[in-house]
Amino acid sequence: MKNVKLLKMKPYDSFVFPELPSDIREKLFQKDNAMVVVGVLGKSNEAHCNKLLEFNMLHSHPSLTDEAGIDCRVKFYFRTEGQTLFLHFDAPFDNFVLLHLAERMMLEKTDESPLHFIEFNSAIRTRFARVLLLALQVCHILVVVEPSISFDMSYLSIFKSLKIIREKYVLKFLPKMLKNANVGSFMGKECRLCSPRLLFMFNLPDNGEPHSLDEIDMLETKVEDYINKTLRNEFIITNNSAMSLFSLPKMKQFVFFNEAKPCSQDPLMDSIDMLSMYLAKQQQNSAGTLPECEEQQILEQAKPYDCFGFPSNFKFELKDPIEEDERSIFSLVHDHVEDALDTGFDESENPGRQRIRTHFVLPSTHAWYEMFKYMHQLFIENPNDPYYDAYDSDYKAYLQNFHDIVNIDERFFGEICEQGLDLATLKYKDMLPPHYSASFHETKYHEALNLLLEYARGPELNPSIQKLKEYCDTIWQSGKQQCEYPSLRGNPCVLGKHKSIDLAEHSSGVIYVSSCNCGRTQGHREDPYTIRQANYEFYQMIAKSCSNCNRLERVQFPVFEPSSSDFRAAEFINKNFSNLMSFDSTGRTASDFGPNVRAIPGHSPFLSGSQRSQNSSASLSFNIASDGEEDEEEGNIGKKGEGRSNRREQDPAEERIDTDQCDQIDDARLNDDDDEDDDQLASNNEEINEIVIKLGALKHGSDTSPGGIGHPAAPTRLPSTTEYLPGMLHIASPAGLLPRFPSWSLVCLGSSSIYTHNTGLPEHVQSGFLSGSNFLLPWDVSVRLEHAQCWAASYEKIRNRKKGNPHSSKSFEHNKTFTLKIFIGVEYECLRGHRFIMNAPDSILRCGSEIVRNSGSKVVFNDMPIYFPCPCRNTINNTAQLMRVHIITPKAPVNVIIDPKVKLFQNNMQNSITFTTGMTEPIKLTQSSYWILRLPFVYEGDSGPLMAPTDVNPASAIMHGVLLAGMYGIRENELNEETIGISNPSV
């Protein structure tokens, strides 16, 4: 290689602390002369982290010789004949060291919460501050390398923290420990070589535009002024350099901007690219070879470092940038080294007459190295050892408080979290009631949490949230927990948490307004917790304050009557549940119709075929039963009834339809022959559009007509006297079990004259009705009586005798057909006591003018919803419940009978249960009377109470529960002289 220039400066020897090879040790301590120690610390972007690359003092590229950067690694560079010792520090601000630490800290994170950035940043700052403090203690000059163009302001907080740590802790423990270790006696009372000079190196951006030297010099001067002013404003440096963490030269340059250079990430890859370019040019040349000068130039550029390819015994020297008069950071450092060797550093500015003598020392290499090893142990090794236990109290305090002082971010976020936690706890305790529910507790906690989140940030956020949660839970669980046992209406108990044997001990504090059994008196009722409270005890209590309830005639419903004091609630498995779910095409179950349904050929206790035509438009039927004896032949009913009966005998399918007691009648389900016959029968309106009741012979006392044929009484199971039904009676309840109290009530308010259809229900009789909704609905029923011969004679004789006209001109035939006028009112009541009548399953009666003739048929022949929205202004839980049925019976030789059944649906109508009164036979109401049936306030099945819905839509109200159609019926009256003596059978 004939064109290689021999260089004058020998390369630097290097080693990584603490591994000091013997040959290098001899060179380092050969003359034991004094050296100026220059530290290099800062940031880098390369994996090797070697910031001395910009000093142009390395004979090979670090990426080819150095290992990847390691935290707190110190590498020494020196020359035997030189007087400068370079210390290169790998620190956490080097990017690849930072990446390695991040990976290691994430692996060491044992808990489930991820590593917070503030925690990671604090750990990095702490590690960097330890290295920086060591460098300031052992170096004369410290070069801070910044790869960007601007000064990193985050250094200010680190400088301020280290100044506090040095004055508060280091100057206390370090003199003692250096003396005990018998090293560093030359350090003086300040325990450092001098007040080190700080130099800054920045890199100009590589934007493609060259910068003139004048521009760079102007930029350096401005940055120097900015840094000097900033550090003095923060009191990091002062006029007394001995009291400063470091010093800045007064009259010398301390900021250097390095000109932009192409970044060489991997010189070996660059050499391969250059070689490939060389071979490509060889192929393009027609001669196959390149000119010698061009070939030599390419090969020189392809070398990864100087003298690449020379034999190992080749002697060379690096060129000295000082002699070359180059503009470099190395030249700037050399100027400051010369000052240190000549006069030392004295940066103090004392305008007074007394001049403060500053400490500056140039120790021998061996003495300095021994001191460095001990300082490295104190500032780097011991703090990194988690198991180290310091024996000196001052040193121990230094180790314990270093992190807290340096990491002002953690301290700041910790303080704001603490402040937010204090405010949040006050927010939670503000206006707490004596006892409160879990939902109220959660609401208060979330209000406090939102306030905490307005303040708290950083790694202490989650611990602060946990502390707040524990604090709030402790307050709530320390005697402020609410019982919260739900009432039958779903309201929680507001008493303190308690153990109650009786559910009646609970109280939700909610008060409702309800009316008594007769509807005359309204009163306040507590939210019930038991069925007994809901359906029995309240009405017993309010009856004491009602002037009417205890005087009225009432129907006694079957209840459990114990034979001894040793009785208990029955335990059973509901075997009849399948009956509840066996829906037919009409949506009814087979058991909805109760035990009174009998399918005896030729005998229908309900409407006959002609009777069903009485309201063919509604396609519904209502119950007609007979207390008297039934004949075996249908021919006595009449000519048209006989023809209808003959058709039943010919068609069994029609017979099943006619004998079904509660199914809805759909004319479309009959065959075409029946349709033709029905049309023919409908032509005789006066004869067909009526109820036909065949009455038996006149009864005197308990005797029956000799000609009557009775059916044998079916054996009935006597009710149990040792076990009672724990819930309410329903169609699947086991036979022989009765409840301990009635949930229904049926009272007779008095004579039918109480109600006047022109004015409606008066307020003093029925209070709480909404305006215009206090009218009952008329239901006109045509009834034709077909009397037995003996009954007819007796009836005519007794009737004429009572009228005082034994020779009346009116014939008997004119009096065997009459119209019954029955008044029906289906009443709903909301929890605020508002009452109203409905005139259809989906319509509320608003005023009396809406009532037309036979309006009651809409509520008689249709299922009426149990729950319906109340028109009152209450926006919260305005659901009204069907609570009463008003019935005014007519003056006629017949009785109105009722058999109420309430069917409630669950799980979107997938399950249902039908409640009954428990009466074995339909209830017969007296004539010309005002009866009120009060329904249960709460329903309870075998598995527990059925919650009332809180939001009901009028269009889908029947999906929650209904009062089944077929509740009302007409039954013949037992004939005697008292019952026959009615002056006018029609209303």
UniProtKB/TrEMBL annotation:
Domain of life assignment:
Eukaryota
* Biological process terms in GO annotation: nuclear-transcribed mRNA catabolic process, nonsense-mediated decay
Which portions of the sequence form the region Disordered?
Answer: 625-680
Transmembrane segments in this chain: where? none
Q: Which InterPro entries match?
A: SMG8-like (IPR019354)
User: What does the protein in this record do?
Assistant: Involved in nonsense-mediated decay (NMD) of mRNAs containing premature stop codons.
Hey, which family's this protein in? Belongs to the SMG8 family.
Q: What protein name does the entry list?
A: Nonsense-mediated mRNA decay factor SMG8
Q: What's the source species for this entry?
A: Anopheles merus
